[in-house]
Automatic annotation (TrEMBL), chain A:
Membrane-related topology note: Peripheral membrane protein
Annotated gene: ap1b1
Keywords: Acetylation, Membrane, Protein transport, Transport
Superkingdom field: Eukaryota
Organism phylogeny: Eukaryota, Metazoa, Chordata, Craniata, Vertebrata
Record localization: Endomembrane system
Domain Beta-adaptin appendage C-terminal subdomain residues, every copy: 851-962
Family: Belongs to the adaptor complexes large subunit family.
Domain (Clathrin adaptor alpha/beta/gamma-adaptin appendage Ig-like subdomain) ranges: 735-842
Protein name from the UniProt record: AP complex subunit beta
UniProtKB/TrEMBL annotation, chain B:
Originating organism: Cyclopterus lumpus (Lumpsucker)
Membrane topology of this protein: Peripheral membrane protein
Family according to the record: Belongs to the adaptor complexes medium subunit family.
InterPro entries: Adaptor_comp_med_subunit, AP2_Mu_C_sf, AP_mu_sigma_su, Clathrin_mu, Clathrin_mu_CS, Longin-like_dom_sf, MHD
Protein name from the UniProt record: AP-3 complex subunit mu-1
Compartments it resides in: Golgi apparatus; Cytoplasmic vesicle membrane
Matches recorded under SUPFAM superfamilies: Second domain of Mu2 adaptin subunit (ap50) of ap2 adaptor (SSF49447), SNARE-like (SSF64356)
Length: 972, 418
């Protein structure tokens, strides 16, 4: 059969490999490679293939090398057999052979081999042939990936730095590329020390190297901060020709350099204007490339138009959507169209948007309708036209179009009060067709807000009340508020209605937000209706023009990262890139240095990570504001109405503390917290508004019994955490586990994990909508916890989560939140809110997340501290089945910020002395004993603070080099 | 940098993987498959996907997905450009870029991938350099190789690798020296219902086929270079000369290459070669609709419009089309809901018309979306922007080459809304 011809059995191959005939050998190796590529295990042939290596036939040699690279790792002892040939080949008169040898050696990722590599590599870095030098430069990066310490000790980094001044541009480009990659895992190494001389060398090499080299050099240039505007201009002048390169990545990297450096140019400079003009055409051209390129370009253009709208203000038309654009391109184009919309082009934009609203793709149509609303809010002169366009669309009766239109009309009302109310009648006609919570809520808001102008407002609202308990929280809250508004406006006819809604909200609901809002209204209405009017019908602040602008400091940082993954995700680079343990936060115009926190070891327990929390998207109001929604001006600004004592505690706390107090209800015993108790009043206590009291009974005495925050999974689960994760390098990151099952959260499933990157703890979550309706308005809050973990920004879920959709969210955490001891210590109670409800769950984070980057203690201090700590504060553990040697273990632990201070070898036993520091400033010292040949380690942990138990858990998964450490400590 | 590459076909099989650093389990592709499930069409899969530990950057070419895995911050455009380059190279080597061809040449593919990246850094991506390192398979060569035992792999250092002109190999020799240039323009346009141009621009490209002995230095100049709004060049073009003189001066690569891309939109109004009179309507009552399309010439620069074709994406409810074409044939592809009308040459004396009834699924509501017409056409011997090459000179070599410039205009994304 053909299959047998292509992939013959192993024994046949073995015979052919050992054939005397060269040609037969070569064909056999080819067959081996062919089998390997389709995933057949041909590792058994290792010695036979390696035997073919010593040949003068270059093709055969290359094939053997291909094989070696693939299998050396699983056969490290065999791989050593190949070393001699490599060393010999590095001396070969043919530079192609020398380069091939040094290139292949670096790809054999076997620790044992690396030491043999050093001498040949050193020679090749200084080889007379630039082709060999440029290959050797990359080899340094490879070696660094396998054994960073070795590369530093051998001085290869300095040699690499010298290569930046090499006479050959290709060597310069590769040296820059290698250094950039190494620097990413070495935040403070200052490897790419840029000064005017090196910049000049880079700019010279830029003109002569390959397209890829140009990208490396441009990205490196972007990190430089020019001394003055003259230097800035001269760099810009030398970079602009790159805008005409055929490779779009070169173009975008050049745009990055120009966008960053032009910040330093005075705006009145002629050159500044010239530069602005030069930027538009290449950006437009990127949009005629393949759709994948377009997508990345559009994400970046989105940043550029926010920072410098003038560049593309005349180019609106290139963003018009084509019928056969992929959906991801369509949605991005739409976004940019709105950003570029202005009085000058609004007519065109509106005509386009109206066209899009009749397309097939539902997501796109919805976004187009929303865009019309955003235009109305952004360009005042167009508001009327937008409203009439929206009315036209409502007339189409296409269900989702109508609903989107109503949602945006609500915003238009808020922006231009008392202007377009004439359309309310048309809106009311469509009341019955609204089935999405957001649209229902918007419609209810409109009815409540304009109750005095809608004759049958009471009937309309009453019709919603029938299925009150089936509505989502968003709708319920809105309905409650709307009916209270209606009552305040037309008190005589609507007493019964308001009574009904208050009782539904307070008695029959188990949603705390709804209940509490119900109580507040109830209390307000019953004590001081005048104040109630002031509060509920207060003048609302106008909504701002652009709701989804990126926060300026984040935008600045992203402009410095144009063309990167960060720019595609519009997140700070520190927030998400694996392995980059210390990304420098970039700012325009100067660098603010690294984001590492600096704190003295003696810091009190309150000190945490001091890094400024990552930027916040302003459109995501804070949780509290969201919960109370549109209407309720916080009592603090209007002066709180008199509230009776029983209510005060609960209500105030609710307003002040937000959700964390609610979560705390059950677990929080240390803090005095009282659940809102029913106001103690009888009909006689009713306030001055006489007539109002008539219908009011006392609210029910039944109070929220318990919020069943799922009690944390036991410690046993934690033991499992490390199992099976295959993260060969980098810090320990547990896999995602399900925190909140969909069953318990009305269809919302949350799984997640914690990671520490670049000194920032992040909660990485996967939110899945397993319900039938769209979820929106996500927010998150933690209860106080042992280490003061708190979210450092809002939960960034900007798009609604449709049914069956999953979304990844990374939430940066700070450690400066309120502290309360939890049991177990690393337990975290979380509340997540969406348009449907509020849900609670608890999860546990690996303590290793809390180990800070500067946890390396001075040797002397370590010694003194070690002696000082009494034996009572010491615990000893066994780590079973660890097959790493002490150095590898030390490296592994270092990636989790457990630093080895010293190493001692006594009678064949390695003793590693290690330190780590928690975010709250507590130091933990450790001694790790590793006996050669004994897979069980012993560790002793000590801390000044008394440690009752301190556990190191360690798991070995089946695959080699996938050893994970999980360190959990309990400190009393 | 680029960590791994997976080649995946439309049915979701991974049929080739290559790792430049450590091996990454192909289970990482599950995230991609998840996204692919969600997408309506294969081309709707987002090109950049985030997974807990990696990023997946994908391009879609010829029914194949080229999926790369990266672990550190890498410019995504760099990866996307590279992946397209890989696809181009396969195309160049094997004549097409398909699953079967890649599987048939799997060892060559591996050798190529190994030469193209080192540790995730691009190494040799120029077709000239690659062809010196690994010779493309030809039937003749494999016969010769078998007979003589000679090898497929070059064993000298490719000359291009380090010279300042990496795109050209040394010692090129031809008996017939020739340099041909194709100026190809594509009109991207959106016309609205009434035929008014909503948006139009021209994407131009100059494809070169140069087979010249030695180290020729060429200069190509235009009659009207100021037409061009934006240009991007092959690295061989000397940018300074362009900036100062608006001429293209370059030492060409050997063989076929793209000399420049350009863009025309703002300065001159774009000529639209055809007009379309159309009406597609669906009745409120009864499951049918009516279609009537006529196409006529508009601004054709006095040339004939050829290979005219209309594609209409019909609403889902349309089951069949019962139409009459005065010229050409029409077909209705039911599964994809695409109506294709292949017209051919446009005769200004007798305008082609397509007319008749569309039948809808019984009981289906009147379609909400308006179908959009995509037009394909070709006009030989003219660049619609009016761009003209004035002359081509050669320096550095003594012989006289054959020279030629050809122009053609095509429809790119040319849409008529209804």
């Amino acid at each position: 059969t053909t299959d047998n011809q292509n992939h013959p059995p192993i024994f046949e191959l073995k015979a052919e490999l050992n054939s005397d005939k060269k040609e037969k050998k070569k064909e056999a190796v080819k067959k081996v490679i062919a089998s390997m590529t389709v995933g057949k295990d041909v590792s058994a042939l290792f010695p036979d293939v390696v035997n073919c290596m010593q040949t003068d036939n270059l093709e055969l040699k290359k094939l053997v090398y291909l094989y070696l690279m693939n299998y050396a790792k699983s056969q490290p002892d065999m791989a050593i057999m190949a070393v001699n040939t490599f060393v010999k080949d590095c001396e070969d008169p043919n530079p192609l052979i020398r380069a091939l040898a040094v290139r292949t050696m670096g790809c054999i990722r076997v620790d044992k081999i690396t030491e043999y590599l050093c001498e040949p590599l050193r020679k090749c870095l200084k080889d007379e042939d630039p082709y060999v030098r440029k290959t050797a430069a990359v080899c340094v990066a490879k070696l660094h990936d396998i054994n960073a310490q070795l590369v530093e000790d051998q001085g290869f980094l300095d040699t690499l730095k010298d290569l930046i001044s090499d006479s050959n541009p290709m060597v310069v480009a590769n040296a820059v590329a290698a250094l950039s990659e190494i620097a990413e895992s070495h935040p403070n190494s200052n490897l790419l020390d840029l000064n005017p001389q090196t910049i000049n060398k880079l700019l010279t090499a830029l003109n002569e190297c390959t397209e890829w080299g140009q990208i490396f050099i441009l990205d490196c240039l972007a990190n430089y901060t020019p001394r003055d505007d003259r230097e800035s201009q001269s760099i810009c002048e030398r970079v602009t020709p790159r805008l005409s390169h055929a490779n779009s990545a070169v173009v975008l990297s050049a745009v990055k350099v120009l966008m960053k450096f032009m910040e330093m140019l005075p705006k009145d400079l002629d050159y500044y204007g010239t530069l602005l003009k030069k930027l538009a055409p290449p950006l437009v051209t990127l949009l005629s490339a393949e759709p994948e390129l377009q997508y990345v370009a559009l994400r970046n253009i989105n940043l550029i138009v926010q920072r410098r709208p003038e560049i593309l203000k005349h180019e609106m038309k290139v963003f018009f959507v084509k019928y056969n654009d992929p959906i991801y391109v369509k949605l991005e184009k739409l976004d940019i169209m709105i950003r570029l919309a202005s009085q000058a082009n609004i007519a065109q934009v509106l005509a386009e948007l109206k066209e899009y609203a009749t397309e097939v793709d539902v997501d796109f149509v919805r976004k187009a309708v929303r865009a019309i609303g955003r235009c109305a809010i952004k360009v005042e002169q167009s508001a009327e036209r937008c409203v009439s366009t929206l009315l036209d669309l409502i007339q189409t009766k296409v269900n989702y179009v109508v609903q989107e239109a109503i949602v945006v009309i609500k915003d238009i009302f808020r922006k231009y009060p008392n202007k377009y109310e004439s359309v309310i009648a048309t809106l009311c006609e469509n009341l019955d067709s609204l089935d999405e919570p957001e649209a229902r809520a918007a419609m209810i808001w409109i009815v409540g807000e304009y109750a005095e102008r809608i004759d049958n407002a009471d009937e309309l609202l009453e019709s919603f009340l029938e299925g009150f308990h089936d509505e989502s929280t968003q709708v319920q809250l809105q309905l409650l508020t709307a009916i209270v508004k209606l009552f305040l406006k037309k008190p005589t006819e609507t007493q019964e209605l308001v009574q009904q809604v208050l009782s539904l909200a307070t008695q029959d609901s188990d949603n705390p937000d709804l209940r509490d809002r119900g109580y507040i209204y109830w209390r307000l209405l019953s004590t001081d209706p005048v104040a109630a009017k002031e509060v509920v019908l207060a003048e609302k602040p106008l909504i701002s023009e652009e709701t989804d602008l990126i926060e300026p400091t984040l935008l600045e940082e992203l402009i410095c990262h144009i063309g990167t993954l960060a720019s595609v995700y519009h997140k700070p680079p520190s927030a998400f890139v694996e392995g980059s343990r210390g990304v420098q936060h970039k700012r325009i115009p100067g660098n603010l240095g690294s984001g590492e926190s600096v704190e003295s070891p003696d810091n009190g327990s309150a000190a945490g990570v001091t890094e400024a929390p990552p930027a916040v998207i302003p459109s995501q109001g804070d949780l509290l504001g969201d919960l109370l929604n549109l209407d309720l001006t916080p009592p603090t600004t209007t002066g709180p109405p008199p509230i009776s004592s029983g209510m005060q505690m609960g209500a105030m706390d609710l307003l002040g503390g937000g959700l964390d107090s609610l979560v705390g209800l059950r677990h929080n015993t240390e803090r005095s917290f009282r659940s809102p108790s029913p106001p103690d009043y009888s009909p006689t206590e009713v306030g001055p508004g006489g007539h109002m009291g008539a219908g009011f009974g006392a609210p029910p005495a039944v109070m929220p019994a318990s919020f069943n925050a799922p009690v944390s999974v036991g410690l046993d689960d934690l033991f499992d955490l490390g199992g099976g994760v295959g993260m060969p390098m980098g810090a320990f990151n547990p896999p995602k586990t399900v925190w909140l099952p969909a069953m318990k959260a009305k269809g919302l499933e949350i799984s997640g994990t914690f990671v520490r990157r670049a000194g920032v703890i992040q909660m990485e979550m996967n939110l899945t909508n397993k319900a039938m309706s769209v979820m929106t308005d996500f927010a998150i809050q933690f209860n106080r916890n042992s280490f003061g973990l708190a979210s450092a920004g809002p939960l960034q879920i900007l798009t609604p989560l449709s049914p069956n959709q999953s979304i990844e969210a990374a939430l940066p955490l700070s450690t400066v939140g309120p502290v309360m001891k939890m049991e177990p210590l690393n337990n975290l109670q979380v509340a997540v809110k969406n348009n449907i409800d509020v849900f609670y769950f608890s999860c546990q984070y690996p303590i290793s997340m809390l180990f800070v980057e500067d946890g390396k203690m001075e040797r002397q201090v370590f010694l003194a501290t070690w002696k000082d700590i009494p034996n009572d504060n010491e615990s000893q553990f066994q780590i079973k089945d660890c097959h790493l040697n002490s150095d590898a273990a030390s490296n592994k632990l270092q990636s989790s910020n457990i630093f080895t201070i010293a190493k001692r070898t006594v009678e064949g036993q390695d003793m590693l002395y290690q330190s780590m520091k928690l975010t709250n400033g507590i130091w933990v010292l450790a001694e790790l004993r590793v006996q050669a040949g004994n897979p069980n380690y012993t560790t002793i942990l000590k801390s000044k603070q008394r440690i009752t138990s301190l556990i190191i858990i360690h798991t070995v998964s089946e695959r080699p080099f996938c050893t994970n450490w999980n360190l959990i400590c309990y400190i009393l | 940098m680029i960590h791994s590459l997976f080649l995946i076909n439309h049915s979701g099989d991974i049929f080739l993987e290559k790792h430049w650093k450590s091996v990454i389990s192909h289970s990482v592709c599950d995230y991609f498959f998840e996204a692919k499930e969600k997408a309506v069409d294969p081309e709707d899969v987002p090109p950049v996907l985030q997974t807990p530990h990696h990023y997946l950057i994908t391009v879609h070419r010829g029914k194949l997905f080229f999926l790369s895995v990266v672990q550190t911050e890498v410019p995504p455009l760099f990866v996307i450009e590279f992946l397209h380059r890989v696809a181009d190279t396969f195309q160049d080597y094997f004549g097409e870029c398909s699953e079967s061809v890649i599987k048939d040449n799997v060892v060559t593919v591996y050798e190529l991938l190994e030469e193209m990246l080192d540790n995730g850094f691009p190494l040799a991506t120029e077709s000239n350099v690659l062809k010196e390192l690994i010779r493309p398979p030809t039937i003749l060569r494999s016969v010769v190789n078998t007979l003589t035992g000679s090898s497929n792999v070059g064993d000298t250092l490719p000359t291009g690798q380090l010279s300042t002109i990496p795109w050209r190999r040394a010692d090129v020799k031809y008996t017939n020296n020739e340099a041909y240039f194709d100026v190809i323009e594509e009109i991207d346009a959106i016309l609205d219902k009434s035929g008014t141009t909503v948006f139009a621009e021209i994407q131009g490209v100059i494809e070169a086929s140069v087979r010249l002995t030695g180290m020729p230095d060429l200069t190509l100049s235009f009659m009207n270079p100021r037409l061009l709004d934006d240009v991007s060049f092959h690295p061989c073009v000397r940018f300074k000369r362009w900036e100062s003189e608006r001429t293209l001066s370059f030492i060409p690569p050997d063989g076929n290459f793209t000399l420049m891309n350009y863009h025309v939109s703002s300065q001159n109004p774009v000529a639209i070669p055809v007009y379309v009179k159309q009406s597609i309507s669906f009745f409120e009552s009864g499951p049918c609709g009516r279609l009537d399309i006529t196409i006529g010439p508009k601004q054709t620069m006095g040339k004939t419009v050829e290979a005219l074709m209309v594609k209409i994406h019909m609403p889902k409810a349309v089951l069949s089309a019962n139409l009459t074409a005065t010229q050409g044939n029409y077909t209705y592809d039911l599964p994809n809901k695409v109506l294709v009308w292949d017209i051919g040459k446009l005769n200004p004396q007798k305008l082609p018309n397509l007319k008749g009834i569309l039948s809808l699924q019984a009981g289906a509501p009147k379609p909400e979306d308006n179908p959009s017409l995509n037009i394909d056409l070709r006009i030989q011997q003219v660049a619609i922007s009016g761009l003209k090459v004035s002359r081509l000179e050669m320096f550095g070599e003594k012989y006289k080459p054959f020279k030629g410039v050809k122009y053609v205009t095509k429809a790119g994304k040319f849409q008529v809304r209804t």
